[in-house]
Amino acid sequence: xxxxxxxxxxxxxxxMFDDWMQKYEHLIDLGKSxxxxxxxxxxxxxxxxxxxxxxxxxxxxxxxxxxxxxDSDAIITKGMVALMVRVLSDHTPDEIINAxxxxxxxxxxxxxxxxxxxxxxxxxxxxxxMDAVAYKTMG
Amino acid sequence: xxxxxxxxxxxxxxxxxxxxxxxxxxxFVFPIMTELKTPDISIIDIDKIRADFPILSDKVNxxxxxxxxxxxxxxKPIQVIETITNYYxxxxxxxxxxxxTLSQEITVAYENARATVQKxxxxxxxxxxxxxxxxxxxxxxxxxxxxxxxxxxxxxVIVTAMxxxxxxxxxxxxxxxxxxxxKVVPIxxxxxxxxxxxxxxxxxxxxxxxxxxxxxxxxxxxxxKEIIDLAHAQNIPVLxxxxxxxxxxxxxxxxxxxxxxxxxxxxxxxxxxxxxxxGKEKWLxxxxxxxxxxxTIKTVSFERTEYxxxxxxxxxxxxxxxxxxxxxxxxxxxxxxxxDKIAAYEHDLLEYATGLLQKTDGVKIIGTAKxxxxxxxxxxEGLHAFDIGTILDQLGIAVxxxxxxxxxxxxxxxxxxxVRAAFAFYNTKQEIDLFIQGLERAIKMLR
Lengths: 139, 447
Prior knowledge:
By secondary structure, chain A is an alpha+beta fold. Helix content of chain A is 50%, strand content 13%. Chain A has a 3-stranded antiparallel β-sheet. Chain A is globular. By secondary structure, chain B is α/β, with parallel strands linked by helices. Chain B folds into 2 domains: 39-68 and 338-446, Aspartate Aminotransferase, domain 1, CATH 3.90.1150; 80-335, Type I PLP-dependent aspartate aminotransferase-like (Major domain) (Aspartate Aminotransferase, domain 2, 3-Layer(aba) Sandwich). In chain B, helix 10 (253-256) links the parallel strand 8 and strand 9. The model of chain B is unreliable at 1-18 and 25-39 (pLDDT under 50). Chain A binds chain B through residues 20-21, 24-25, 28, 51-54, 73-77, 118-119, and chain B through 61, 383-387, 390-391, 394, 401-403, 416-417, 445-446.
């Protein structure tokens, strides 16, 4: 599935919910289902420092595609992190660099990306793209 | 007016309406001892007060706003809002400059505002009141000017473990610049300062003590008078960070004998961007200006500048004029209600919310000092404060989550952050009920 297709799928998924509480319940479920990074791998170099919730991001290149794994100590943040991983993981560095991530606005999560929310999500997207740039340069 | 009430525990003010024995003690014995005027909680006209704050009728995320983030900033009564708009509509001119009528009138209004602050803090002179941009600037001013004049290699500065970063970083910076040492008064598990440790830290090398009056995270009311007396016994001046205290309690700088007292207008129902530094004349006269420019001088030549007298020496540039006059209106507003009644009413809210939170499954209150202002920080077992704050926000309930700019305190309690509900006199028990319901719902969703 392309990045755009996954984004479309997520937008449709969130459209099913009537109110914001249900959307948050869905985010919490997504957060709970995200494979965790083991405690030993939650190292400082993988930590994306937000003001409140902490996010860890791990990326590996396999067969020309980047596999992301991520975790957060806050469950709603983890749900949002899960969405990012679902959209960007298992794609080539070029695809990731060019991803527009428009689903964030369509789903109504934009306010969580403002710098004042300080949940590390904005920094996480930046870090995911920077990792892609790094792998591209290496490759 | 009797301004000695600052030292009377809020709990006593609260209890006076509860127990017959306390009522007797408070109504008959205590007034003789302290000339205390007994406050009556019921005298607060909550409906009238709430109607004065337009934002309290707003909806957030489709729900009526419940605003419990008063520790971060308070809401503004219509009287303050109208003062600011009226200033721009009819009064706008620069102060201390023009001969024209508008300039003269606003200069008088601004200096009257200074006098209002002086009276409110019971300062000896109005020139001991310096208008700043807020508590942070007030502390920075003192730290930098004081260090320049008095701090040398090997000297010591004392702060406490419960300080806001704003009362740590300026001192840390000047200590690093001057080769001085920053010493920290520890706290006990309830979140109270350990005064025995404080006494041990005071010595000949100590040049200044900086302490918060009320902890923004824990709500602890510190025994500032005792802290000041102990420092003064060794001729050490004390700066008190009053940012969290002024909205909740009387402050009498002369009775307390504080050398410096700082607060922000926006936490006292006044405008953002204006604050106050009170300093004893003898200290302010010894400190060099912190920033210089228009308004701070007597004469200027390229060879030499003679600086103005207090308070202008410390007020470079055009000040926050509407902020100053708006702050004075806010002060008049709280005084009209009565800070003794406000303290009693808020303490009632604190006791009510504390009781309900203690009964909520998994909740642990952080900060259980005997003497507390209406601030409650708590954690919920297994859950992140950010998640709880996010769900409460969806329900229209504004709380603060995170480390509250007190990271050393979080380290002390081995936590990442807390949820903080800070109540003001416009909050109600009904709002607390809705908050508890929201919290229970959030816990259920997140578990």
